């Protein structure tokens, strides 16, 4: 690389002179780059069309076979008893159904309330630590039958435990209502006692009461004399078995190590540190096939099978620790029952209330009695029409896009912009310019025109041999081509549906109409015997292949030498690379010449200066 010397001797702007000279030298290169840009734009347009054709082919691919078209619907004469749905494999028919009994699961519950009756009140372990109530000890939580509330006492200096109990009673009444929980001074200790609900003179249930600390920062719960973090009036499902063992009507002894019981052949282990809740979790997560739950209101546990039918059962046995007795569970094995259904005179038993026969899914809701429910299965003409409308919509969208690309105007003088030209332009102006420069790049393009022409032929005048003549083409079932409009060429070749005519054809002969779309001839060479959708699919595949050969795949590299335009792009890239090297040498040449001139002028100036001093 020559040394670049500025015009100090000559007074010339050497860099500017070289730059101007190089502009002329770069003109052939800029021409190649513009051609490369246009080629790249053309590739993008081809690939854009290819993407549209591929999307249309996916839609057509779902309609090539007769099984894709089969649409049936099922209706029930009484949805409150039986609801139905039909799949594509269902055949048109009418069925009469009676349901004698529904399928049920097996349910097993405690034979009585588990808590000792009557349960003892919730009484504090000790007398209140202090009767002086302030912001640090004025709160605790009370849960009554699942409803949890925070009780906040008035900050005061209460003279006695009885006075403090009265303050608590006032706040309890405000939170839950009168005569729900009574609060008293029991020998210097605060005592809570929920009031049993009485209906028709007999006790209907014992309320569930739980006391808990509100937060670690407020000592109201412990200040009342309670230990631990919570205390319950009845058996508490969340407390350790060892803490509530004495509250069971049948006392529980879990002072030993590990115990177990078996449910439906699955062993469930437990110990004194477990709670009823953790045991429920073990049962529900096991392979026993049952859900275990606890109802605080009735004070009972229940087991419900996950499945229904005569094989569903709840079989609990083998308790080594006495928990089953405390939970009031006997050894009786409970089983479910199958649904009893009579369809068209044939009685069948089903383990589930939802089952499928011959493509029809029946959902049993309640027994019908002696009056049968009528289920009608018929061809779903609207469903088939929707499939056709979806295809036509996608087809028209694709045709319009291709028409636009092959007919849009070309604008002379709008070449791709150079980087220098873009520097002085606004972004919106650059886009407007490039839109015009891209316009018409595929005008009358033979590859795209050929794909368009073939699609129009297949959907316009093509017929299918071997199909009844009344239904062997699009036009005969109400699908026609839109008339040519010279003012709006983008609509050329679009399809229009006469929905009334189409539905009439489907009502009269759905099999032949579908066959016109999907027919598979005996011979693979019988092109005229192929259904229209099969031919359109094949043509789309061929057109996509042509476009891939022309411009490559969507997202593929632009200089793929296996494609027509990719090979051109590759050659232009090589040309640009060689030209860049040539221009670099040319620029060095100019700088070398100007450098020699500067040296000569400087030498001359030195000589003149010497002579002038003589």
Automatic annotation (TrEMBL):
One Pfam family recorded for the sequence: FliD_N
Domain Flagellar hook-associated protein 2 N-terminal: 10-105
Record localization: Secreted; Bacterial flagellum
Chief localization: secreted
Keywords assigned: Bacterial flagellum, Cell projection, Cilium, Coiled coil, Flagellum, Secreted
Limits of the Flagellar hook-associated protein 2 C-terminal domain: 336-605
Keyword Acetylation attributed: no
UniProt superkingdom: Bacteria
Known function: Required for morphogenesis and for the elongation of the flagellar filament by facilitating polymerization of the flagellin monomers at the tip of growing filament. Forms a capping structure, which prevents flagellin subunits (transported through the central channel of the flagellum) from leaking out without polymerization at the distal end.
PANTHER family (alphabetical): FLAGELLAR CAP/ASSEMBLY PROTEIN FLID, FLAGELLAR HOOK-ASSOCIATED PROTEIN 2
Subunit-structure text: Homopentamer.
Family designation: Belongs to the FliD family.
Protein name: Flagellar hook-associated protein 2
Native source species: Paenibacillus oleatilyticus
Lineage of origin: Bacteria, Bacillati, Bacillota, Bacilli, Bacillales
């Amino acid at each position: 690389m020559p040394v670049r010397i500025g015009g100090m001797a000559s007074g010339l702007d050497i860099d500017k002179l070289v730059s101007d000279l190089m502009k002329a030298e770069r003109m052939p290169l800029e021409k190649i780059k513009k051609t490369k840009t246009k080629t790249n734009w053309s590739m993008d347009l081809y690939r854009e069309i290819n993407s549209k054709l591929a999307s249309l082919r996916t839609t057509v691919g779902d309609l090539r076979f007769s099984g894709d078209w089969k649409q049936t619907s099922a209706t029930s004469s009484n949805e409150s008893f039986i609801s139905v749905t039909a799949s594509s494999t269902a055949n048109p028919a009418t069925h009469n159904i009676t349901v004698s009994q529904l399928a049920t699961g097996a349910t097993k519950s405690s034979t009585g309330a588990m808590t000792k009756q009557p349960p003892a009140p919730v009484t504090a372990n000790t007398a209140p630590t202090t009767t002086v109530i302030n912001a640090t000890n004025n709160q605790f939580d009370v849960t009554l039958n699942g409803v949890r509330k925070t009780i906040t006492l008035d900050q005061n200096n209460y003279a006695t435990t009885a006075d403090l109990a009265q303050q608590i009673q006032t706040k309890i009444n405000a939170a839950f209502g009168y005569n729900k929980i009574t609060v008293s001074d029991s020998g210097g200790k605060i005592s809570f006692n929920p009031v049993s609900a009485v209906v028709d003179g007999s006790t209907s249930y014992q309320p569930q009461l739980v006391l808990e600390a509100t937060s670690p920062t407020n000592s109201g719960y412990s200040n009342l004399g309670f230990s631990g973090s919570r205390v319950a009036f009845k058996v508490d499902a969340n407390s350790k078995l060892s803490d509530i063992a004495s509250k069971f009507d049948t006392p529980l002894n879990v002072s030993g190590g590990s115990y177990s019981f078996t449910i439906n052949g699955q062993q469930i282990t437990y110990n004194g540190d477990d709670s009823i809740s953790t045991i429920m979790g073990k049962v529900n997560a096991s392979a026993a096939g049952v859900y275990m739950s606890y109802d605080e209101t009735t004070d009972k546990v229940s087991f419900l099978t996950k499945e229904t039918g005569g094989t569903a059962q709840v079989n609990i046995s083998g308790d080594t620790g006495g928990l089953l007795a405390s939970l009031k569970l006997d050894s009786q094995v409970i089983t479910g029952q199958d649904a009893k259904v009579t369809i068209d005179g044939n009685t069948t038993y089903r383990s589930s209330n939802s089952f499928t026969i011959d493509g029809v899914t029946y959902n049993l809701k309640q027994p019908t009695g002696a009056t049968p429910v009528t289920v009608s299965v018929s061809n779903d003409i609207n469903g088939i029409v929707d499939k056709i409308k979806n295809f036509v919509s996608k087809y028209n969208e694709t045709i319009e896009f291709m028409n636009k690309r092959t007919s849009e105007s070309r604008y002379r003088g709008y070449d791709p912009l150079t980087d220098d030209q873009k520097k002085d332009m606004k972004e919106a102006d650059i886009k407007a310019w490039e839109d015009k420069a891209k316009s018409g790049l595929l005008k009358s393009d033979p590859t795209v025109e050929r794909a368009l022409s073939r699609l129009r032929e297949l959907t316009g005048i093509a017929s299918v041999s071997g199909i009844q003549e009344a239904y062997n083409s699009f036009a005969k079932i109400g699908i026609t081509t839109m008339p040519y409009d010279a003012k709006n060429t983008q609509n050329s070749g679009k399809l229009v549906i006469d929905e009334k005519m189409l539905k009439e054809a489907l009502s009269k002969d759905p099999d032949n109409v579908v066959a016109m779309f999907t027919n598979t001839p005996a011979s693979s060479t019988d092109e005229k015997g192929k259904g229209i959708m099969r031919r359109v699919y094949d043509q789309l595949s061929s057109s996509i292949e042509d476009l891939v050969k022309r411009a490559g795949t969507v997202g593929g590299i632009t200089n793929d030498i296996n494609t027509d335009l990719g090979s051109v792009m590759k050659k232009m890239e090589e040309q640009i690379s060689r030209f860049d090297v040539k221009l670099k040498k040319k620029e060095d040449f100019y700088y070398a010449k100007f450098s020699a001139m500067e040296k000569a002028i400087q030498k001359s100036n030195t000589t003149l200066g010497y002579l002038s001093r003589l």
